[in-house]
Structures are given as C-alpha cells and as structure tokens.
Amino acid sequence: MKLLPFELRKMFFSKKFLYLLLFLVIGIVVLFGRNVIFQSYIETEEMEEVESLLSTAQNKARMHQYEVLQDPEDEEAREKSVVSGGIVDLLYDLRQSVGSDDWQNRLVTENAMFAEIMNYKDMGEDFPLSYKEIDQSVALNENLLEENIRPEHDTYSLALPNFVKQVVDLYVTFGAIIIMLLIIGESMSGEFENRSINMLYMQPLKKTHIVISKFWSSVLLYLLTTGVILAGALLIGAVLGEDGTFAYPLLVEQNGAIAFMTITEYMAQALLVLSVTIGLVIALYLLYSLFFKHTLATLFVLLATLAAGYALFGALPYAGVAWFNPFQYVMPEDTILIQNMRVWYQGILAVLVLTAVLYVISLQKIKTSKIDS
Amino acid sequence: MIVKVENLKKRYKKQMVLKGIDITIDKPQIIALVGPNGSGKTTLLNCMTNLISINEGTVELLGKKHTDTSLFYELAYLQDNRILYGSLTGYDHLKFICKMQKIPLTEIDAVAQRVGMESYMKKRVRSYSLGMKQHLLLAMVIINKPKLLLLDEPLTGLDPTSAITMRRILLELYEEGTTMIVSSHNLDEIDRLTNTIYFMKDGALLKESLEHIATTHYYVTVNDVDKAKEVLTEEGLSFSVTEENQIHFVESDMELGSFIENMNQHGVGIANIENEKVGAEKRYRELFEGTPS
Asked: Is the separation of the CB atoms in B214 and B278 below 8 Å?
C-alpha cells in the first residue's frame, strides 16, 4: 500500500479534479439559485393545475345539468350532476387556498376533492386523473397531515432536506458515474497513453500493487467527491434554505401497494447502491484500461457495457433476475422507489461479486501487461 | 557480468525491429547507442528493462533476469519527460522513489543539490521548463546510486548549461562505478561523454562500430622511419606506416607525449605532426549517409 498515497496525491492534485470539485460546488449553488427564481412559478403552476381541473369539472357539471334538464327523471344524471358540482365547489375552495399558509386545510380540501373524483369515476365517468395518481396523492397528503409535515414542491423546494435530496437525485442518476469517469478517466489508460506508467513499472514493486492502489485511490476520491457534494448541498441549504425535515415522506411503490420512506432512508439507500455501482465502474474501467490502453476506447466500451447491461437485464421478464443483475443501480432512483416483485437491495451481492471478479482479473492481467501489448 | 544480452529479437506484427542483438558488458563503462530514428534504440532499452516484451533471446542485467523487479534497486532508466506527473512536485517524485526503493529521504536534498534543482523542487512539474524536467528525471535515476543506468536521449532539448551539468554528472557517476548505456542523437555530446559507441541500424547493432572510434589520429613525419618502427615495435605499441611514410597511431593507443619522448630517447627526429579528430559524427555519416571516410 506504499503506492496508495502517491496515487491519491496524483489524482487529488490534478487540475481536472480540483476544477471538477469547484464546478460541482458552483453547480449546487446554481441549482439552489434556480429553485429560488422558480418560487413564484410554484404558485402559478398550482393555480394552472387547479384551473385546468376546474375547467374540466365545470364542463362535466354543465353536461350533467343539461342531461338532467333533458330528462329530469334520469336519477343517474342527477347524481352525476351533484357529484361533479361538488368537485367544482371543492376546486373553488382549493383555488382559494393556493398560496395560503394554511397547508393543512389545503391538503384536507385536496383529499376531499380526490374522494369526489373517485366517486365520480366509480360512476363510470372519465376524469383526467388516474386511480393510481389519486391513490398516491391521497396517501401522501394523509401521511403529511398525520406527521404534520408541510408539503414541498417536488422540484423547486428550498427546504434543506428536500434540496439535499434533489442534489442526491441528480448525483445518483448517472451523474456520479460521469463524474467518476471524468476523475479517474486517465488514471490508468491515460498513463499508458502518455507512458507515465513506465515510472511505476520501473520500481521494485509487484505490478498488482498498481491496480490495487489505483482501485482504492479511486474509491477514496469517490467518497471525497460524494462528501463534498453532500457538504455543499447541506451548507447551501442550511445557510440560504428553509427549515424542513429529513423525515419528509417519499412515496414508494411496493408490489403495487403504496408505502413511504423518509428522505434520510432514501438517501442512505441511494448512496449505498450508488457506491457499490461505482466500485463496479472503477473495476470495469481498470480492466478495460489494461486491455485497450487508450482513454477514449476505454470510456466508450465502459459506457456501452453499462448501457447494454442495464437495458438487457431490464428487458428480462423474470422477477428473480434482480438477484443477478449487476447493472440495475446504474439508475438507482427507480430501483428504490418502485419495488414491484423485488426489493431495493437485491442486486447488491451481484454487483459486489462482479466487482470482485473484475478486480481479480485486472490483478492477473497487469502481471503480464507491457506498455506495447 | 553487468549486461548480457543474447540474440534479442523484437517483432511488431510482421516487422522485425530488433534483429538478434548481442551486448556484453563486464566492466563499468559508458556506451553510447547511436542511430537514426526508428533504428530500434529506444525499443532495445525498453526490452532490456522489460517495459516491452521480447520475442526471442535473453537479457541479464547485474546477474539477474531482466524480468526481476528487484533489479530496480540497482538499475535506473531515464526516459523522456512524459513519464512525469504534472500535478505533483519534483519533491513528490523523488519521495515516491525513495519510498519504493527504501532510500532515506535525506537523499532528496543531496540529489537535488547535485543536479541543481533545489530552488524549484517544491513546485508542480506542470510549471517546469524542459531543462528543469530533464534535471528532475536525472535526479530520479541517480538517487538510488544505480550500478547500471540506461538513458534514452538524455541531452535532447537541453540548453548548453544544462547539457554541461548533465554530462558532468554522468561522468561523475561513471567515475563512481556506474555503467551507462546512453542513446542519443547528439553526436557532439556523445563524443565528449565516451569513445565507446554502438551504432544501430534497422534493428541491428553494427559490430564493427565498437571502440576507438572517437579519438585523435596522429600522422608523424620522422627522419628515420625504420628506426621509429623498430622502437615502437620493441615497446609493443600499436601503430602503422602510411603510404606517405608517416607513422600513424591513435591517441587511445599511445599518447603523443610518450611517442615524442620515445623518439627523442632513441635519436629519431620529428619533422612534422598532423592530427585528425575522428568523432562519432564522422563515423555516423560513413555508416548511415554513405559518406566516404
């Protein structure tokens, strides 16, 4: 492990890594700035949604009133007219509450409206909200009311926990893989290209130590990068953001049923599965570097492997395949939030096993590796 | 045996780039490896240090197989400056080598002072000039006081001051017992470094070009050629007589001073002395450009 500090210094003090960290911090600030700018849009967006539903509901109500006028004996039309009228009334109430601080009242009104819409749809009528959307919205509202947690906008929240979650979402959804490839992208293949690997090859050390040190220094840089991103998001959210709670509920689909997890649970799971996937990416990168000795070729084949693996395993129709799919965490958000016929941690073992196999193959490969072959 | 290379062959696809090289070095010396681009100089050095694979033959350095990584405690190879890491300082590079080769860190200051890089040792390599990088490379290869030092174009791109420093240090190392194989294009510098030159052409080492190439040839007109021949033969000295009846000898066989002293002692008068410096460049032109000597 004498080589590890040297490798770490080399990568840490590279201009690219330092610029990347700076870029990430600036990116977090920009993201927060965007959320601030779009605060006024949140109310507009909510109003537009309510207006759109109101317009639909009014049309439906007028249609049923007309039907009643046409046939006063038509009980079904009369009932539909009453229900649609109720939806219109609740939407008027909801419109009143947009932008107000009384969020509990708004959620109660929303749920009452959803109940009426369900009732209406049960009568065989159409409404531009699916049963699934209604169920999920009602469940979330009930949870928020039960836990006494103010609802936050999905995208433009200024609350510290929700903002941190947003940053983590962007990071885990392919962002981390791209960032890691930018950081380690030249640590092995680049050394073959510019021949700096010669310096390592001409030391009295086992060549396997080169792979070991590059793997673990990449892991440590990943942890450092993740730490910087989390710290940056927490700091900016804490200084400039609003209060919130890390117990904020996130909706999870489990075998068709609705469940909840907190932001803390979500981030822990997302970062865990991301971390094991990054280990796989690093192992793949090192192995491909030893074969191709060319950065662009290595990165291209690596990305193609990840994309193909994700698509191919995802296309397999068997539920049990999740136990053996090492590529499922390339996009971990869906894996955690949609757990139909599987659980989020099922693929971790497969990722770790594949990583270990690739690591061992790399150790064997470098033993016979020369700069020209 | 310091270097024993036997029938070393290297092929890239169908092209044979080293065609059965044999080198034997059994006592410390400086050997220059000279040849045009693509002649196989760097490939030979890379093969010797196991950086690239060989197709045939054997390489033994300092009594060990060239694949033995423990060799690098006693062997060093100076390559081009691309092997340096721009993000690290010169000190980082030297510290790394010290750690890898179990050399006390106190050697860093000593070697930095020797090559004259103390003032910029703590700066990042990305800010170094070509000469500064070359000094660092030199420091990196001499810090372990190697018994065998391979140098690939060590003088390329150096300003005169840096070249003089480099040459001085290499000659000091030679005095300390280090054997060196230096590949170079700089024939003037090679002349000043060694008179043992191996010429490489199309992957082959030209056997005729071994020693006594770079030296001074003397052509002396004496008043009694027969007497001079007798004296020199008795002394067992190498010489020849030219068509113009001049005594011809080379400096490496006999110094001019001792020749004059010998002639004076035996009453042979010297009428005229001509000398001709035959350097690596002349020989190079003969071999590679077909210029007659």
From this structure: yes
Note the pLDDT of residue B207: 55
Which tokens in the block code for residue A361? Answer: 């193959």
Integer Cα distance of B49 and A235 in angstroms: 52
pLDDT for B20-78, tens place per residue?
999 999 999 999 898 888 889 999 999 999 999 999 999 999 999 999 999 999 999 99
DSSP A244: -
Same-fold call for B3-206 versus B215-288: no
Coil, helix or strand at residue A234: helix
All structural domains of chain B with their residue ranges: 3-206, 215-288
What CATH architecture is B215-288? 2-Layer Sandwich (3.30)
∠ CA B71-B185-B275 to the nearest 5 degrees? 115
> Which residues in chain A touch residue B83, judged by CB atoms under 8 angstroms apart?
194-196, 198-199
Average pLDDT over residues A196-202: 92
Q: Please state which CATH number belongs to domain B3-206.
A: 3.40.50.300
User: Cβ of B70 and A204 within 8 Å?
Assistant: yes
pLDDT in tens, A58-77: 999 999 999 999 998 889 99
Mean pLDDT of B174-178: 94
A6 touches chain B (CB under 8 A): yes
Neighbours of A148 (CB within 10 A): 8
Assess whether pLDDT exceeds 90 at residue B161. Answer: no
Compute the Cα dihedral for A350, A351, A352, A358 and give only its sign: positive
DSSP A84-122: HHHHHHHHHHHHHHTT-S-HHHHHHHHHHHHHHHHHHHH
Report the Cα B34 to chain-centroid distance in Å. 9
- Contact of A34 with chain B, judged by CB distance below 8 Å, is answered with no
- Region B263-269 average pLDDT: 91
Indicate the residue type of A161: P
**Residue A312 CB burial class (10 angstroms; 0-12, 13-18, ≥19):** exposed
C-alpha–C-alpha distance, residues B96 and A176, integer Å: 30
Pairing of strands B3-12, B56-61: antiparallel
